[in-house]
Specification:
3-stranded parallel sheet; alpha/beta; 3 strands; about 40% helix
Length: about 80
């Protein structure tokens, strides 16, 4: 289970999201991220660098993003879908 993130000063909730996602992915190879061409705004660059084969970028296609997440889940993976 992910541990709470200690933050000093102001922070962006996306920083906590990516740190937690990376922590989870480190311990579970079924964790994948699905984005709609929003790696930058979702701050998923660190995840993409650490797990390049576990990030699915569907481009500007929100319906496809949700469908891809559902299909990955149906196949036994644990998708985290972000359209930030």
């Amino acid at each position: 289970m992910a541990q709470p993130v200690a933050v000093q000063g102001k922070s962006d909730c996306r920083d906590a999201w990516v740190k937690t996602l990376c922590d989870l992915a480190e311990h579970d190879p079924r964790i994948v991220a699905v984005v709609n061409d929003s790696v930058g705004s979702s701050k998923l660059g660190a995840f993409q660098k650490a797990y390049p084969t576990r990030l699915v970028n569907v481009g500007i296609a929100e319906q496809t993003m949700i469908g891809a997440g559902a299909g990955l889940a149906n196949g036994g993976l644990i998708p985290f879908v972000s359209g930030a």
